[in-house]
Write a structure and sequence with these properties.
With about 1450 residues, the chain is mostly beta strands. Helices cover about 15% and strands about 40% of the residues. Strands 46, 47, 48, 50, 51 and 52 form a 6-stranded antiparallel beta sheet that branches.
């Protein structure tokens, strides 16, 4: 492999190997011969019949191919067969030494001895010692080669053992188990494991034994499996992700599971200024990979209370889809914001804006814009500071902030707030709390004297009403501005608020509170769980639970207090009892101890007191926090300083910290934050560059602000730089007799400035003791490789490197390993060097390197790249490429996202594969936030360019464009243009010679780089696009189409996607241009791109082809529509119809034509909907051409004409017509209700009747069993069919059907067992009909039959029982001496026995009273001559076996003179 050599090769006087003397060449040939013999002998001895060449095939499966070495040496190797040193044999004596050598080795020893003898003639004792060392070195190489070969043979055998078919299939086994993690909230966490097994196991992840489905929660989980490595990534962890996770692997041989736990903690320190990195990947739903870029970002912003402010960023989403809408969210301090009256959010399609209508200190914080697409999300954050508004009174304090309502109840609410950072120069005396009822603008002060505690219970509220609150601070100078009003809150019971599940307070009006129905006359019990929830020197707050009984009348409470040590209880709220189980007591003596108790009361009386509280001393229980300590400022940027401090000790209910800054010597302190921060580290922005500042901090809680911390040391505001960290990884690239080429890795930290060069030191090591350091170079070298000359051959040296930048020279690196300065004579190449990783993405990266300095015997002809996980053992190295690559770069794909990898490279020549390079530093395969890719663009003129943008540039950053990773210096093919943070590479004349990989690197950034592969296919595509742009076509959203308008007008139209104001349109009909006129009306809306041509009507002459020709600059297009034949005729007919319809609708007309509707009552309503009516419009109904009289249920309401037919019958059949008429025109609507029309109507009526039918029921009569159903309405035309066992019933004298009113029945006379079964009645409605069924069998039949028999017997008995049919009067008045004859009818079967009674005593027939029965039907009662003794009550009693009946009458006998007296 040829190429330009580095400076340290070009200046090497021995680069061509011509320096070697004849003696040296002879020595080399002897060494090669002996090595070959030794290799052959060793292989034959140790291989055990296995060919050594088989090792190459084995190694190829593990790593890149390694050809057989031809020169074995005594080398020490590690587990990867990498040379790590020399093995020195123990020379105990010449005999022992000779015994360990083969014949070849003895011959080599003799040759060496002869050589040493000859050297004795002209060398000193020192030279003899060197010769002995060379001899030992050769022996060591041979021994090392044998050891290496033996190891390879052993590994080969182990490999074949593993590949034994009997042992291939095995159950899953976790080689690497997932480990548990504890992470902060909103961080990402990855669990990964390595699983072996055959067949390949199926891996499933579980959370708390529930399988994880990534699709059910898109973006939350990501599961990957590559190369037996399985991972679960949890994005933006929250508390719900704290769980036990299980991974289960299973195949046909078994299943195994392992567990790992994830614990998510909330970060209590500083606010993280960046959200977790976005995830990128293809959108499975659409197959599109969106790339989101946030540009034109807002910076750290400063505002003042009352002002407006807008934060905005431009968002570029590629590819740009017309209808795609990303999710745009704004966060403040990691809390999602929602639109409100204080802030408005806007998304215009490419720009996200957050506008504050009225800034308040509550708006201060870290703002984050998050743009989410289906491929992931991008975020950007910056801090917003809000200063206090100008005070209305000089030296007045700033306004309090963050006013909140706590513990809201029926008649009181606790209001809390945070103290301001500015006190105006005087201590804050306290705070006033104001309230305002929602719906009003009247603020009422709640406390008469200021309170120092940042919480205050507001009492005296009206239950059910909503309030807002604000707070004002006061000092000796005056009152502050009021704070921002709190959110509305309702004074109501918390349980009622929870039931409402709405906002805490409605905007206007009162909340009506409903209670349970009271139980009258019950005295409530004791309150429960009374306790002191808060105590200050101004007030004490009590809370308790209502008594356990429910349903009591609305309970209220009396609060009583008692000074400790006495038994005197004093009622506090004597006049007005409280409604809520909370109460605040004021005007207590500070320092005294009190006990409290509470009584319930209602209309029934006052209940027993609760248990008293423990003695409570009036005073502040919450202390002001102690002052923070150890304030340490650190340089950050040109306008900011990082301030950290020690937390306030034993601070209770800490709200946060306020930081103040002062220019040294000014004595004026300014707040750095106006909203307390919870962390112990804060970045103070807005400082003056170059000035020196001191800082101080104080803590704040509800009790107040602490004392200030001690002032910090002064710090100058400027960007922080430092000397660079030490380089590391010093290695040898080449070694000759008197010089060595060293390489090293750049420092991990450059100190905030560019590294200007490196200084290399060396020292000799004698017998393990290092000597003094010497400078290898007095002038800094810019490259990370340097040749150290003037060394002494066969001496040992150590090296160290120092990096330098504008801040100075950094500390030196750790001394390197000890290297021996000796001539390299190996045939294979040395190690490549200067490995660089670029274009790191979640699934790929690019590795670059420089070829080895030491080429070996032959030029380098290829490279192999190895990869392994950073924490994997050495055995895990695997090859990236199986075939050597000639390039000095490679793109490594399919890496595991989030995994950390290391790489190394080996060079190859004809002699074999050389030494491995130094291993790179671990690289995490993750796309960094803000990473952008090279975008290819073709402009309107067809110019093809590559565009790259970098959002993290510094003032010294530069764009470096390369082709195939070699910097482009020839401008003949590409023109480079850079403007701001964007760079463009323009192809002058794109052609095949431009095919290759183009990359762009931005210097002075965190590796911002990208590449673009211009392949032959891509070049062809770009040339086609370029041609289209040079000769463009106007895109159309829709082709030419036709539609009908009102009055039958015909509209031809199309819509162009984009046209400028200079666009023109030509209208063509049958190849002839048409223009604006009476027949054609043209219109071109250039805003929407809609082009239209309107014709009033179509005539036969308009049949043909219509064409719209578009032209806009050099862009053209056209669209045609062919209207001929049936298509044209149908369009023309429809146009004429629409014209007639329009004319019809100019006068009274029907909107809905005549139809009918059947009601639930089976009434038929004929109706139609009319329009354009006026008073003079007449609406006439006709039936069969005869007008229907106006009194026959005609109606007209809300534009609907109705005609009701109450009980439809056959006579209602006919043709109905409605005619509308006035001076504007006439319209008619006809409904044919004859034949099929009437039949359809009746079927619908029958359907309503059928649906109204009740279920079939069974009843019994004295004649048999009857089945029946009721309908709401019966029509004589209704057809029904009775079924027995699914067959129509043939009626007879025994089985009959009929209708009585709305009852339809089936009578079965004298039923028998044969009549048992399933019966049904079927209603016919012309469709499916309706069938009602009933089961007359089993118990139902038995019960019906038994009832029938009972009724039958009762009927027979009723007909046959003895009866007195009539003929007897109630009273008989008769004159004494007259004859009395009474006869009555009697009946009964059998003939009844007749008994006559007088005054309930039986009488018998005699001469005076004759009793007789004639024909068995007539019973006679005769008294021949009545006398007064015959007066009385008489009865006839008839009796047979079926019953008894009696008839009564009264006989009154009077004397003749009495009758005369009565007449008088």
């Amino acid at each position: 492999m040829s190429g330009s050599a580095p400076f340290y090769q070009k200046h090497h006087r021995h680069y061509d190997r011509g320096f070697r003397s004849k003696e040296t060449e002879s020595k080399l040939s002897q060494y090669q011969t002996s090595s070959t013999s030794a290799t052959t002998s060793s292989s034959s001895r140790r291989s055990g019949g296995l060919k050594v060449t088989s090792y190459s095939g084995l190694e190829a499966s593990r790593l890149s191919p390694v050809p057989e070495r031809v020169k074995p040496t005594y080398l020490a190797v590690d587990k990867e067969n990498q040379i790590i040193g020399y093995v020195v044999p123990i020379f105990r004596g010449s005999q022992e030494f000779a015994a360990g050598f083969s014949g070849t080795e003895e011959r080599r020893a003799r040759d060496t001895a002869g050589y040493m003898a000859r050297r004795d003639l002209f060398t000193s004792g020192l030279e003899m010692e060197r010769s002995e060392q060379v001899s030992r070195r050769e022996a060591m190489r041979g021994s090392a080669e044998r050891i290496s070969l033996n190891k390879r043979i052993h590994e080969h055998g182990e490999h074949f053992k593993r590949m034994n078919e009997d042992s291939l299939m095995h159950a899953p086994d976790f080689v690497i188990k997932p480990r548990s993690h504890t992470v902060w909230e909103k961080q990402c966490v990855r669990l990964h494991c390595t699983v072996s097994g055959w067949p390949d196991p199926r891996v499933v992840w579980y959370k708390n034994n529930v399988a994880i489905d990534p699709l059910s929660n898109a973006g939350k989980y990501k599961i990957e499996s590559r190369y037996s490595v399985h991972s679960l990534e949890i994005n933006r962890c929250d508390f719900d992700d704290t769980a036990q996770y299980r991974v289960s692997a299973m195949n046909s041989k078994g299943e195994q599971s392992v567990f790992a736990s994830v614990v998510v903690k909330r970060f209590k320190g500083e606010i993280d200024e960046s959200l977790p990195s976005p995830r990128h990947g293809p959108v499975s739903e659409y197959g599109i990979n969106f790339q989101t870029h946030i540009v034109d970002k807002f910076g750290v912003s400063f505002g003042r209370e009352g002002e407006t402010m807008s934060l905005g960023c431009t968002v570029i989403i590629y590819p740009a889809l017309h209808r795609y809408q990303p999710e745009v969210q704004w966060y403040r301090d990691d809390v999602l914001l929602s639109p409100s009256k204080w802030n408005h959010m806007c998304w215009s399609g490419d720009r996200a804006t957050l506008t504050f209508t009225h800034l308040n200190k509550e708006d201060e914080g870290l703002y984050t814009l998050r743009v989410t697409t289906k491929s992931g999300y991008e975020t950007y954050s910056a801090y917003v500071f809000v200063r206090d508004a100008e005070a209305e009174v000089e030296r007045a304090p700033g306004a309090p902030l963050d006013v909140r309502c706590l513990d809201a109840n029926k008649d009181y609410i606790i209001v809390s707030w945070k103290q301001p950072a500015i006190d105006g120069g005087d201590s804050i005396l306290g705070y006033f709390v104001d309230r305002c009822e929602v719906g009003t603008a009247h603020w009422i002060q709640c406390n008469e004297t200021p309170v120092k505690f940042a919480r205050f219970p507001v009492t005296g509220l009206v239950e059910g009403r909503s309030y807002t609150f604000r707070v004002r601070a006061v000092n000796a100078s005056g009152m502050s501005r009021p704070s921002r009003a709190s959110e509305p809150v309702a004074a109501m019971d918390p349980a009622d608020r929870a039931r409402k599940r709405g906002t805490s307070a409605p905007w206007t009006g009162q909340i009506i509170v409903t209670e349970e129905e009271p139980a009258e006359g019950i005295v409530p019990g004791r309150p429960l769980d009374l306790q002191v929830t808060e105590a200050t020197k101004n007030y004490v707050v009590l809370s308790w639970n209502p008594p356990g009984e429910k349903g009591l009348e609305g309970v209220m409470y009396y609060v009583e207090k008692c000074v400790s040590g006495t038994d005197s209880w004093q009622r506090v709220n004597t006049e007005i009892p409280v409604k809520s189980p909370r109460f605040a007591l004021f005007d207590l003596a500070e320092g005294k101890s009190y006990s409290f108790r509470v009584r319930c009361c209602n209309s029934a009386g006052v209940g027993e007191p609760s248990d008293p509280t423990e003695a409570t001393t009036v005073g502040d229980k919450l202390d002001i926090p102690s002052a923070p300590s150890q304030v340490v400022p650190t340089r950050n940027t040109d306008t900011s300083v990082v301030v950290s401090w020690g937390a306030s000790r034993e601070a209770k209910e800490l709200v946060g910290y306020y930081i103040e800054a002062s220019i040294v010597g000014s004595g004026a302190w300014e707040p750095c934050n106006n909203k307390p921060v919870n962390a112990t580290r804060f970045i103070c922005h807005g400082l003056t560059t170059g000035e020196k500042y001191v800082f101080r901090v104080r803590a704040v809680n509800a009790a107040g602000l602490s004392q200030f911390s001690p002032e910090s040391e002064p710090v100058e505001v400027k960007a922080a730089i430092a000397s660079p960290a030490p380089p590391f990884g010093i290695s040898v690239l080449e070694c000759v007799r008197d010089s060595m080429v060293l390489a090293w890795k750049q420092p991990s930290f450059a100190g905030g400035a560019d590294i200007t060069g490196y200084f290399l030191d060396y020292r000799e090591v004698v017998d393990g003791v290092p000597e003094k350091w010497h400078e290898a170079n007095t002038r800094a070298v810019s490259e990370r490789a340097y040749r150290v000359s003037d060394l002494r051959e066969n001496r040992k040296y150590q090296f160290q490197v120092r990096a330098a930048n504008m801040a100075g020279v950094g500390i030196p690196s750790q001394p390197s390993d000890t290297f021996l300065c000796e001539e390299w004579t190996i045939a294979v190449p040395g190690p490549p060097h200067d490995l660089q990783v670029r274009e790191v993405r979640s699934d790929s990266l690019v590795l670059l390197w420089k070829p080895p300095v030491y080429q070996g015997r032959d030029p380098v002809n290829g490279f192999y790249v190895d990869i392994k996980e950073a924490d994997a053992p050495q055995e895990a190295w695997r090859g990236v490429n199986t075939k050597a690559t000639e390039s000095s770069f490679i793109k490594i794909k399919n890496v595991k996202e989030g995994e950390s990898f290391v790489f190394r490279v080996r060079a190859q020549n004809n002699a074999g594969v050389g030494q491995v390079s130094a291993v790179t530093e671990p690289v995490v395969a993750l796309t960094k936030p803000g990473t952008k890719e090279i975008v290819v663009d073709v402009d309107d003129n067809g110019v093809v360019s590559l565009n790259f943008e970098c959002g993290d540039m510094t003032a010294d950053s530069k764009f470096v464009w390369s082709k195939n990773y070699e910097e482009i210096t020839d401008p003949s093919r590409l023109t480079l243009e850079t403007k701001g943070n964007k760079s463009k590479a323009v192809f002058n004349t794109p052609g095949e010679e431009d095919i290759g990989i183009y990359s762009c690197l931005v210097t002075h950034t965190d590796g911002a780089s990208s590449s673009y592969t211009l392949s032959e296919e891509e070049l062809k595509r770009l040339l086609e696009i370029s041609h289209d742009h040079k000769f463009p076509v106007i895109p159309l959203k829709s082709d030419l189409a036709v539609e009908l308008l009102e009055k039958g007008k015909v509209r031809f139209w199309l819509q162009a996607d984009k046209m400028t104001a200079n666009g023109k349109v030509d209208y063509i009909f049958n190849d002839n241009a048409v223009s604006q006129g009476d027949k054609y009306k043209m219109n071109f809306d250039k805003n929407t791109g809609v082009i239209e041509m309107i014709m009033d009507c179509l005539t036969p002459a308009d049949e043909g082809t219509f064409t719209f020709q578009l032209k806009d600059g050099k862009a053209t297009n056209q669209s045609s529509l062919v209207l001929i034949g049936d298509v044209f005729k149908a369009l023309q007919k429809e146009s004429e119809f629409q014209m007639k319809e329009w004319v019809r609708k100019q006068g009274p007309h029907f909107i809905e034509y005549l139809s009918y509707e059947v009601t639930q009552e089976c009434c038929v309503i004929l109706k139609c909907k009319v329009g354009n009516m006026k008073k003079e419009t007449s609406a006439l109904w006709y039936k069969d051409g005869h007008q229907i009289k106006a009194d026959e249920n005609l109606g007209f309401t809300e534009g609907v004409l109705k005609l009701e037919i109450a009980q439809i019958s056959k006579k209602d059949s006919g043709v109905y017509e409605v005619a509308l008429k006035d001076d504007r025109g006439k319209d008619t609507s006809t409904l044919n209700l004859t034949d099929q029309g009437f039949k359809d109507l009746m079927n619908e009526v029958f359907s309503f009747i059928a649906n109204s039918s009740t279920p079939l029921k069974i009843t019994s009569t004295d004649e048999g069993v009857r089945l029946y159903t009721f309908v709401n309405f019966y029509n004589d035309l209704l057809q029904v069919t009775w079924h027995y066992k699914d067959a129509a019933i043939a009626f007879s004298d025994r089985v009959k059907s009929g209708v009585v009113g709305e009852q339809l029945w089936l009578q079965i006379t004298e039923p028998t067992e044969k009549d048992a079964g399933k019966y049904a009645i079927e209603f016919h409605d012309g469709k499916a009909g309706l069938r009602r069924t009933v089961e007359l069998s089993g118990q139902a039949f038995d019960d019906a039959f038994a009832e029938f028999k009972r009724l039958q017997a009762a009927a027979i008995a009723e007909r046959s029982r003895a009866r007195v049919a009539g003929g007897l009067p109630d009273v008989v008045t008769i004159q004494e001496g007259k004859a009395l004859n009474l006869t009555c009818n009697i009946s009964g079967d059998p003939l009844p026995e007749v008994t006559w009674l007088k005054n309930d005593r039986e009488i018998t027939s005699d001469d005076h009273c004759i009793l007789s029965i004639a024909s068995g039907k007539f019973a006679s009662f005769t008294i021949t001559a009545v006398n007064t003794m015959d007066s009385g009550k008489y009865s006839i009693l008839v009796k047979n076996k079926y019953g008894t009946e009696s008839g009564d009458f009264t006989v009154s006998v009077f004397m003749p003179e009495e009758a005369a007296g009565k007449k008088k």
